[in-house]
Amino acid sequence: MKKLTHMSMLLLAAFLCGAALADDYYEVTVTNVTKAMTFTPVMVASTRRGHTFFTRGQAASPELTILAETGNPMPLQASLDSFDVTNSGATLGPGQSVTQTIAARGKWRHISVAAMLIPSNDTFFAVNGIRGPKGKQTLVVSSPAYDAGSEGNDELCENLPGPGCGGPDPGDPSTPAGEGYVYISNGMRGIGNIDALQIDPEFIGNYEDLLDWRNPVAVIKIRRVKN
Fold first, then answer.
1. What are the angstrom distances between the C-alpha of 85 and each of 24, 62, 190?
2. Fewer CB atoms inside 10 A, N or C side of the chain?
3. What per-residue confidence (pLDDT) applies to 167?
4. Nearest Cα to Cα of residue 173 among 162, 183, 160, 159
5. How far apart, in Å, are the Cα atoms of 137 and each of 27, 144, 224?
6. Residues of the chain with pLDDT under 50
7. What is the pLDDT of residue 19?
8. What is the pLDDT at residue 90?
């Protein structure tokens, strides 16, 4: 076998370097498996290993608080150490699915997903930086509902966005203080004044039977689609 010339070695190294830095693409499909809750636009991002946007038992960041209370994903998107980030741009109803494709490269091969559940005070679901699958594998994970702990769960329409309410921004300082840390949500308790008639007349007066859930609330499928 002939020895590689210096120039050939340089070209080979450049090729291998370029191949190592080539983008991967992940197809991320989110399915809403609740009975009647709606998801706000679903954020998907490719992030670094170890980069998480919340920790259970610790206070939510201001950016996560905005997503969990209002459904607006933009501040959280801007705060992430991400290679690529997007959101679905529309709400996702019960039993519905949405698919987004995200690019990843090098250290940015972990996938994060998040959206608010409405109507609620500060409830969200999330995938918090999971390694994207290799080869032709498809990774399927489920997410429980989390409470951001940033707002009290009074279930009053004046503090809730979404179906049956459409109240003002729940980030208003007049809303009750929350628990102060992220935890697994304990669901809808029926203590407020949500107008179930606007969602399903059958549940007027007992909207918790319609809106409550038993975890998980979302199923997320992640598939590597291009090398």
1. 14, 19, 36
2. N
3. 74
4. 159
5. 11, 23, 7
6. 1, 10-20
7. 45
8. 96
**Cβ count within 10 A of residue 79:** 14
The predicted model scores a pTM of 0.87
Q: Which value, in Å, is the radius of gyration of the alpha carbons in the chain?
A: 21
End-to-end CA distance of the chain: 31
**Domain coordinates in residue numbering, the chain:** 24-226
Q: Which CATH number fits domain 24-226: 2.60.40.2130, 3.40.50.360, 3.40.50.2300, 3.50.50.60?
A: 2.60.40.2130
Identify the H or E element spanning 74: helix 74-79
Say if CB 129 and CB 60 are below 8 A apart: no
> Is 168:125 a contact under the CB 8 Å cutoff?
no
Show Cβ contacts of residue 205 under 8 Å, excluding neighbours closer than 6 positions.
196
